Amino acid sequence: MHDSAADVRAAFAEQAGWCRALGSPLTAAVCDLLAEREWPEGEVARRLISWPGDPRPSGDAVPLRMCGGLHAGVRAGTLSALAACYPPNAMPETERLGAAIDEAMVSPGLAEWLDRPPQTNEVGRSNALFAGVLAFAWRFPLPVALFELGASAGLNLGMDRFGFDLGGLQTGDPSSPLQLKPEWTGPPPPEAKIEVIGRHGVDLTPLDPLSDGDRLLAFVWADQAQRIAQLEAALKVAEAQPVTIDTDDAASWIEVKLAEAQPEGTSRLFYHSIAFQYFPPASQQRVASAIERAGERATERAPIGWLRFERTPDEQDPTLRLKCWPGGEDQLLATCHPHGACINWLGDAPAR
């Protein structure tokens, strides 16, 4: 007989491993306790026990829903016992953290965080994405329109408004409130002028940086202060220069966008980061086919690029790949930390 509760506990244990591997010991400990302890009776426990779908991190991501709800309560000041266990306080003893989680699980409002999948907008990934934009702009030195699939709140559509140190290359906006400097190995990316003439994004359930900032911050792991600070700075950038994100299926949206005429003397760059894996297989195929067909019509004066920061099943780490048309060259540019904190740059500049 199918045991939903056992599946949920296994999902928390799996998520704990990911959190520990990615430098989040507190969030890992929270997931460990939710995997091991008896859940206090209440609405949250009832829903976990009878979870109808796939609770794993690669499915419904139930552990991240819970961790987001707990972090939201801490940030809002409604979970005082748990807040005493969270940063800036020291790592708590296991029993104390467990008791605080038990208390939080019967608090009003936590169950609502199980209703929706987690949504993040990891701006650290702009470290890799902007390096890819530089490579594309070096190959095609034209004004560029950006198109992001799975854009969430659209923060990475404003990546040229951030400042970067990419392997010693100072680029982007030096006056931006968000300055990013990932750990970098290999040569720096090619230096190129970036002139963004359009920003377009799509998501099934886009977020608004102005009204949904607290939700985005809640899904950043509470013991990763640098990621929280980066997101807070990116939200300030978005508040000053907002971007509208369309609500649609990525495949349908990109087919419409690629059907629109591309002005001569401009380039179009389509990209996504840790999003493609969540698209249904049929949508993945439609997206790839639409870009490939458009690539066949591309010219040196109206080129197209496809930038992918994704993890494939046969790769341990996410990779950054850029395919350009005309020509259709597909280049492996870098291997990356999932949050963009470390970049191993592999690619030479694309041939002109």
Describe, in plain words, how this protein is organized in 3D:
- The strands form two sheets. This protein has a nine-stranded mixed beta sheet with strand order 5-12-11-10-9-8-1-6-7, with helices on both faces.
- The chain is an alpha/beta fold.
- 37% of the residues lie in helices and 18% in strands.
- The protein folds into two domains: 4-114, no CATH class; 123-345, no CATH class.
- The protein contains eleven helices and twelve strands.
- It is globular and about 65 Å long.
- α11 (281-297) links the parallel β8 and β9.
- The N and C termini lie far apart (60 Å).
- It has helices at 4-21, 25-36, 43-49, 62-76, 80-83, 94-105, 126-139, 213-218, 225-240, 250-259, 281-297; strands spanning 144-149, 163-166, 169-172, 179-180, 183-185, 196-203, 245-247, 267-273, 304-310, 319-325, 329-336, 342-345.
- α1 (4-21) runs antiparallel to α2 (25-36), α2 packs across α6 and α10 runs parallel beside α11.
